Amino acid sequence: MESSSFLPEEHLKLPDQPGVYKYFNADKDLIYVGKAKSLKKRVSSYFNKNSGVNLKTRRMVREIRKIEITMVNSELDALLLENNLIKKHQPKYNILLRDDKTYPYLLVTKEPFPRIFQTRRMIPKRGTYFGPFASVKAMNNVLDLIRELFTIRTCKLDLSQAKIAEGKYKVCLEYHLGNCQGPCVGKQEEADYLKDLEQAKHILKGNLGAAKSYFKQEMQTYAEELNFELAQKFKDKLDLLEKYQSKSLVASPSVKNLDVCTLVTDEKSGYVNYMRVKDGALITSKNVEVKKRLDENDEQLLLTALIRLQDQFNSDADEVLLNIELEEEIDGLNVFTPKIGDKKKLIELSIKNAMYYKKEKALLKGLNEDKKDRVIKQLQADLSLQEIPDHIECFDNSNIQGTNPVASMVCFLNGKPAVKEYRHYHIKTVDGPDDFASMKEVVGRRYRRLIEEKKPLPKLVVIDGGKGQLSSAVEALKELDLYGKMPIIGIAKRLEEIYFPGDQFPIHIDKKSESLRLIQRIRDEAHRFAITFHRKVRSRNAFGTELTSIPGIGKNTADQLLKHFKSVKKIKEAEKEEILNVIGKSRGKQLWEWMEKNKGA
């Protein structure tokens, strides 16, 4: 693997070899990653005026200021490297897989008498992870099967030989129910436990055939020894496993180990169904939406989705079935588009899932858009506003007995949170617990900034509080000559009453109204955002005060630590060497000794 850099005008110097190319803009941001069988031909095609590339691609090409390439041995290597780079950097012009879920895994721990439990966090040193599972239900079905077949412990005890020998443990209810053999009191040898665990791992990998062979062999062995009770026990386990397999059977058991990936499209997106099949049984099924960025063709969309999904679900498939024939074979990727038989039926099943997913997304999108428009139009009617309030901003203050006063502003666009527009404020001009003056300050600062930056003003301003806070916010708007140019209301917490400036009596919106629920949601979000910030500030200030009480640690050092570690928690969790590197050996040693002394305090 070899990397090089070029300027756009030097692209003709590129090698005629497979690899990955990266495009950077004037700000040195990575804007696109692509793969190529021939780097020279592929990159040159972007700059060829006669190539007929679309408008989106031409827009990207105008941004390119630097090209970096990495040569690899094969087109498959290029595909894999491209996937890793896109996953890491998420360039703005690359195909986007719309899937922000955190998937569950099953973890087999690295400890005496290992446990199996579900988790969404991967920490490799804890043990071996199996998954991810496309749904919690699918994962629980596998876990329930394993617990019916094997006696795997569920407790969190330290079952080292020394601890067991001390005799400090007693068997629990799981032992009496027959779900555990009591390794905590020495009633089960670890070798026997690990024998069962090995078969459980086969099932977690989807290798049901290996587990079935084990149960069949054990059944026959005990039958030959005339131990019919144990033979029957293993026969029951074999029947349970076969019953589980029959429920997930989608093809002939002769269909051993393959992936199925199909695509259907519309103008803006592709809809992909991905299935993993082992021994004829479906062990994973996942639907994803693939967002087009540069009018990619179906082959590009499908290949991109396939590589990312195989990576995500740790595929070890021997063969991949696609519903689109590739123009050229890719060495190392065993791809096939079947025309008849069980494999053709798998393609048809996968397409059916992709089509259903496409219809479901279209229906959901329509419902969401209808609801969004309906709610903000209803809010316009309820508040008698001249314009649809598709841009709403809400303010809230937070302080405890006047300490660490802060405020927040949250922004909702088209009825949805626009998190990038949220703002935190330290109160600068107010001493003591004065919510009214604090509100005036932050409202004034917010809209003075918008005026200076010539940014659009909101269609509705919401103040979390009653008449007092609302009057203070109005004063700020009057000073900026904005009062009357955008509507402003206050919402009182106790009775959820809506106040307009100058009105003696509040208006009451129906408690079941979607428009009131939207205002409440915005108010609650502003409150949450302010409280979270206040806790963080209070914690930082409290810890900073503690730090500065240590000889040799002043305000600048405390600020230096917080700037590097970002939070008090991370300072306390940091390694000694990292602290020494940030503030030096002498002060670092003093701080470390103080933290060690005050651990748990």
TrEMBL record:
Gene3D superfamilies: 5' to 3' exonuclease, C-terminal subdomain, GIY-YIG endonuclease, UvrC, RNAse H endonuclease domain. It is found in: Cytoplasm. PROSITE patterns: GIY_YIG, UVRC. The keyword Ion transport does not apply. SUPFAM superfamilies: C-terminal UvrC-binding domain of UvrB (SSF46600), GIY-YIG endonuclease (SSF82771), RuvA domain 2-like (SSF47781). Residues 16-95 form the GIY-YIG domain. Keywords: Cytoplasm, DNA damage, DNA excision, DNA repair, Excision nuclease, SOS response. Pfam families: GIY-YIG (PF01541), HHH_5 (PF14520), UvrC_RNaseH (PF22920), UvrC_RNaseH_dom (PF08459). The UvrABC repair system catalyzes the recognition and processing of DNA lesions. UvrC both incises the 5' and 3' sides of the lesion. The N-terminal half is responsible for the 3' incision and the C-terminal half is responsible for the 5' incision. Belongs to the UvrC family. Interacts with UvrB in an incision complex. NCBIfam families: uvrC. This is UvrABC system protein C. The gene is uvrC.
